[in-house]
């Protein structure tokens, strides 16, 4: 007998955990099964050492507010990212109050977000950015300085032994956060399994086939004994990182045509030297190198994982044909289809700077990587820092009417016309905006049920359906309330 369920979640990361938590709260009578091919959840992109843990709110990331020649700076995308993160904060706060999540400090900690730039051009840009953002309610409290004494108080490691006469500037928002998405994912799945959701570890979904009644028949196997089996679901979510593309292709939905992914790996320098760690409490972002993708913006970060503080610097790009750290060396080849070959070739032709950047990164040895750190932290010593491998990021490539194909940074949900299957492609700021991404998915894939779900969604997310940045008083009230519950008062 083939097992019948309401929802199947593929992948044990923060996206599946968030969607599962929302669906269980909205429809506790639905039978939900989650599949993870590894022996535990949060082992790929959601693992705390596979990402920088930045609660992306556009407080310090310059790529959310790029400078376009001849045009005034537009804060729209930065405001949108911040709005989305506020929804995540509200959702987590509600779950803390309900006892679903543990003590907030186990997954989120107050960490100022800073931007640091050098050179007259970047200093002028950062000052313009500050002047625009300080007028936005969600960026209340942002500070700007070109004074080395002030910046030294904010982040001493940036200023020690810095060359005199060099133009530099920094912004700082004390209300930033560091998030352990691995701990958050584990806690959400612990709640789901305690509530009756079936989490099947060491189980890999191999194929998906649409049924005449509109549901999906999934073929899967136990990765330990290779025992094959099948399950039927009314709705399927594919939150399997880079492998989402492969599974959506196997589903045969026309909406996935023209899509491909380009895998980019990463490494970070890490130190746990208490003398160094004690001098820096911030996430400090700067400008990306020429040709570098936005996800490779250099940053020096405080991390708090399992209660222990450390510093990370990077990322340094690496290349592997795998779509996941524990993927297949054939991933980049087996994704190729007649419908996505041309868009992917166009992306390759149109992005020579990216190829040059990747090659230059691959040629860097340990000392050269610490030299890159020394542009942030002049006193950095080679022996204090070790390299750790971060997660694989699968950047979206897709058709474009004008260019033939484009490389898209960010996240994108691809769903079937009938809403019976959906998958998530892309990378940053994904985890930080998991809640609004899943809310959009619910609205798109469950149009009949969604109106009846809205009251419960408003109880979980008090400003659901509203734009906080349009109401300064509401923005202040909301951020203060979530900061209090999550213990992240600046």
From TrEMBL:
<comment type="similarity">
    <text>Belongs to the MQO family.</text>
</comment>
<keyword id="KW-0816">Tricarboxylic acid cycle</keyword>
<dbReference type="GO" id="GO:0008924">
    <property type="term" value="F:L-malate dehydrogenase (quinone) activity"/>
</dbReference>
<keyword id="KW-0560">Oxidoreductase</keyword>
<comment type="pathway">
    <text>Carbohydrate metabolism; tricarboxylic acid cycle; oxaloacetate from (S)-malate (quinone route): step 1/1.</text>
</comment>
<dbReference type="GO" id="GO:0047545">
    <property type="term" value="F:(S)-2-hydroxyglutarate dehydrogenase activity"/>
</dbReference>
<dbReference type="InterPro" id="IPR006231">
    <property type="entry name" value="MQO"/>
</dbReference>
<keyword id="KW-0274">FAD</keyword>
<dbReference type="InterPro" id="IPR036188">
    <property type="entry name" value="FAD/NAD-bd_sf"/>
</dbReference>
<keyword id="KW-0285">Flavoprotein</keyword>
<dbReference type="Pfam" id="PF06039">
    <property type="entry name" value="Mqo"/>
</dbReference>
<dbReference type="GO" id="GO:0006099">
    <property type="term" value="P:tricarboxylic acid cycle"/>
</dbReference>
<protein>
    <recommendedName>
        <fullName>Probable malate:quinone oxidoreductase</fullName>
        <ecNumber>1.1.5.4</ecNumber>
    </recommendedName>
</protein>
């Amino acid at each position: 007998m083939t097992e019948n369920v309401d929802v199947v979640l593929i992948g044990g990361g923060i996206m599946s955990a968030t969607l599962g938590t929302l669906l269980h709260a909205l429809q506790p009578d639905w039978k939900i099964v989650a599949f993870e091919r590894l022996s535990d959840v949060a082992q790929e992109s959601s693992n705390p050492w596979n990402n920088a843990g930045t609660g992306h709110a556009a407080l310090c990331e310059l790529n959310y507010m790029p400078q376009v020649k001849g045009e005034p700076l537009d804060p729209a995308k930065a405001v949108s990212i911040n709005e989305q993160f506020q929804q995540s904060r509200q959702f987590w706060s509600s779950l803390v109050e309900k006892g679903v999540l543990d003590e907030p400090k186990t997954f989120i900690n107050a960490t100022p977000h800073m931007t640091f730039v050098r050179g007259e051009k970047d200093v002028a840009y950062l000052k313009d950015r500050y002047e625009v953002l300080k007028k936005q309610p969600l960026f209340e409290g942002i500070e700007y300085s070109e004074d080395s004494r002030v910046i030294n108080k904010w982040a001493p490691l940036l200023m020690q032994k810095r060359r005199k006469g060099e133009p530099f500037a920094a912004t700082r928002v004390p209300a930033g956060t560091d998030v352990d998405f691995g701990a958050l994912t584990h806690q959400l799945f612990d709640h789901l399994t305690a509530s009756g959701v079936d989490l099947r570890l060491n189980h890999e979904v191999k194929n998906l086939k649409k049924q005449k009644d509109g549901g999906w028949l999934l073929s899967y196997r136990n990765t330990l004994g290779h025992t094959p089996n099948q399950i039927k679901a009314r709705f399927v979510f594919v939150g399997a990182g880079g492998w989402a593309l492969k599974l959506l292709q196997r589903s045969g939905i026309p909406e996935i045509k023209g899509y491909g992914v380009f895998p980019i790996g990463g490494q970070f320098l890490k130190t746990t030297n208490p003398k160094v760690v004690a001098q820096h409490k911030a996430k400090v972002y700067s400008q990306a190198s020429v040709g570098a993708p936005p996800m490779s913006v250099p940053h020096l970060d405080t991390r708090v994982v399992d209660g222990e503080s450390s510093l990370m610097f990077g990322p340094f790009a690496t290349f592997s044909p795998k779509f996941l750290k524990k993927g297949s060396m054939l991933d980049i080849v087996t994704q190729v289809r007649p419908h996505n070959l041309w868009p992917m070739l166009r992306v390759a032709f149109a992005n020579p700077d990216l190829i040059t950047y990747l090659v230059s990164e691959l040629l860097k040895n340990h000392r050269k990587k610490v030299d890159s750190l020394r542009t942030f932290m002049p006193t950095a010593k080679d022996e204090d820092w070790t390299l750790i491998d971060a997660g694989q990021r699968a950047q979206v490539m897709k058709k474009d009417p004008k260019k033939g194909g484009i490389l898209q940074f960010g996240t994108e949900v691809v769903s079937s016309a009938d809403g019976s299957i959906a998958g998530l492609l892309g990378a940053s700021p994904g985890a930080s905006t998991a809640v609004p991404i899943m809310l959009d998915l619910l609205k798109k894939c469950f149009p009949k049920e969604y109106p009846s779900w809205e009251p419960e969604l408003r109880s979980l997310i008090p400003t659901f359906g509203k734009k906080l940045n349009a109401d300064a008083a509401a923005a202040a009230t909301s951020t203060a309330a979530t900061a209090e519950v999550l213990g992240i008062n600046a």
